[in-house]
From TrEMBL:
Residues 148-377 form the Sigma-54 factor interaction domain. It comes from the Bacteria. InterPro entries: AAA+_ATPase, AAA_lid_NorR, CheY-like_superfamily, Homeodomain-like_sf, HTH_Fis, P-loop_NTPase, PEP-CTERM_resp_reg, Sig_transdc_resp-reg_receiver. One of its GO terms (molecular function) is sequence-specific DNA binding. PROSITE patterns: RESPONSE_REGULATORY (PS50110), SIGMA54_INTERACT_2 (PS00676), SIGMA54_INTERACT_4 (PS50045). This is Two-component system, NtrC family, response regulator. The modification 4-aspartylphosphate is found at D54. Keywords: ATP-binding, Nucleotide-binding, Phosphoprotein, Transcription, Transcription regulation. It comes from Marinobacter pelagius. One of its GO terms (biological process) is regulation of DNA-templated transcription. Residues 6-124 form the Response regulatory domain.
């Protein structure tokens, strides 16, 4: 299908209306409005990329007050629309004022078809370019750290910090909610350091039982406990020359905190069951989702250890608090996971985009990976909807929607989903509930790509 370019001409003079229509109707979809009210109605319905706006409109055809009011309305309702104001020959002042308010261009009467066509085409090109830029922006990744997709100022600043501290040996504490990318950043620190070709050894202090954690970290000598049939290096030793990543450090038992502190001070370890000390050269990076200050206050974390591990601290914001990251990461995941699932070229529907932006993402990027993975399996066709992602749409954003069609479609979609779910996907019952015929319901489920069986949708 060829997508047509849409032009709205706001002009109260019937003679000029037909001349302008004649200039453009071969190549563009053209609508004409002669006053503010009908112009706004057409704007909502037609969603034109470009509007030509005669400032002298009734009830003030000799002045410009109505035209300026309409310009303001258009820019508020549809800020991406390019408005070309049309003024009288001597009316430079109003043209300048309109540009100052946000009009894209101006054109002075009398009408010259060639110049007007040039100005209008230029506005369409501008609209097109801006659209492309927005599209590129959505796919932009400003992060220099492998695996980290980001566009928000907060993450950009974190990436810059990582780049700066990577060459040093400063112990670094990375805090933030679960799934925010703490481990990825720790790996980034290692990869950008001079230790990059040496090991990166990670251990999750919360996942290993207390009695095993000591020997996991420090290693043990043969015969030091039942089952120790041979000596084994611990994580610290095996990271020698490289980076040791202690994940969930806030969960480290007190007794081990003392031993870790000693290691950080003296840079030597002794394996469990050994009296010999072994020097180890590692850079230590720790992470936790817990509030270490509170742990110190409650007596669960040693303050002296905290100062040792936090020469530098990096607080990774939750996904919902990053400006602009959510959609960029979702698009990236859709592309990469879609490819893995043999479903390339999947795209997000408008409702999916809105839902992604308004959801709180308590599990952060990890939760998003799960949802996008599911959606790349469940999506019918190439379009991924909010329900494929198991996200119900937030209605708040609807206030800002351009027109009634979008609001109506969203409401219609939500009502159909609800009806289907409440009668366990019995189409006859659901259509009775909705007060429509079964064929109409089938048409609508097709239109909105709503799945019609319980196993393929979300409760
Ligand atoms: N900015 C990002 N871009 C792309 N993928 C990311 C990003 N942040 C995190 N991820 C991915 O999300 C998942 C969780 O990240 P990671 O394990 O680093 O989080 P974490 O904060 O260490 O979590 P936890 O506290 O639960 O251990 C990983 O699969 C990681 O690759």
């Amino acid at each position: 299908m060829v997508v047509s370019k849409r032009l709205l001409i706001v002009e109260d003079d019937p003679g000029l209306q037909s001349q302008m229509r004649w200039c453009f109707s071969d190549e563009l979809e053209v609508s004409v409005a002669s006053d503010r009210e009908s112009a706004l109605a057409t704007l909502r319905r037609m969603e034109p990329e470009v509007v030509t706006l005669d400032l002298g409109l009734p009830p003030d055809p000799g002045g410009a007050s109505e035209g300026f009011q309409l310009l303001e309305d258009i820019l508020r309702l549809s800020p991406l629309t390019k408005v070309i104001v049309v003024t009288g020959r001597e009316d430079k002042e109003n043209a300048v004022r309109a540009i100052g308010m946000g009009a894209a261009d101006f054109y002075q009467k009398p009408l010259d078809a060639d110049i007007l066509t040039f100005v209008v085409n230029r506005a369409f090109r501008l609209a097109e370019l801006e659209k492309e830029n927005r599209h590129l922006g959505e796919h932009k990744n400003g992060s220099s750290i492998k695996g980290i997709v980001a566009a928000s100022p907060q993450m950009m600043s974190i990436c810059r910090t990582i780049e700066k501290i990577a060459p040093t040996d400063a112990t670094t504490l990375i805090t933030g909610e679960t799934g925010t990318g703490k481990e990825l950043l720790a790996r980034g620190l290692h990869d950008l350091s001079q230790r990059a070709d040496k090991p990166f050894a990670a251990i999750n202090c919360a996942a290993i039982p207390e009695n095993l954690l000591e020997s996991e970290l420090f290693g043990f000598e043969k015969g030091s406990f039942t089952g120790a049939t041979q000596s084994k290096k611990g994580k610290i030793e095996s990271a020698n020359g490289g980076t040791l990543f202690l994940d969930e450090i806030g969960d480290m038992p007190m007794a081990l905190q003392v031993k870790l502190l000693r290691f950080l001070q003296e840079r030597v370890i002794d394996r469990v069951g050994s009296v010999n000390t072994i020097p180890v050269d590692v850079r230590v990076v720790c992470a936790t989702h817990r509030n270490v200050r509170e742990l110190i206050d409650s007596g669960d974390f040693r303050e002296d250890l905290y100062y040792r591990i936090s020469e530098i601290t990096i607080d990774v914001p939750a996904l919902r608090d990053r400006e602009g990251d959510t959609l960029v990461i979702a698009q990236y995941l859709l592309k990469s996971l879609g490819k893995q699932m043999d479903r390339p070229n999947l795209t997000l529907t408008e409702d999916a985009i809105r839902a992604i932006n308004s959801y709180a993402w308590p599990g952060n990027v990890r939760e998003m990976i799960n949802k996008v993975k599911r959606a790349s399996i469940m999506a019918e066709g190439k379009r991924v909807t909010a329900s494929d992602l198991e996200l119900t749409e937030d209605n708040e954003g609807q206030d800002h929607q351009l027109n009634l069609r979008q609001v109506r479609e969203n409401a219609e979609r939500a009502a159909i989903l609800q009806a289907l779910q409440s009668c366990n996907f019995n189409m006859a019952q659901a259509s009775r509930l909705l007060g429509i015929t079964r064929p109409t319901l089938y048409n609508l489920t097709d239109k909105y790509r709503i799945k019609t069986s319980p196993e393929s949708t979300n409760a």
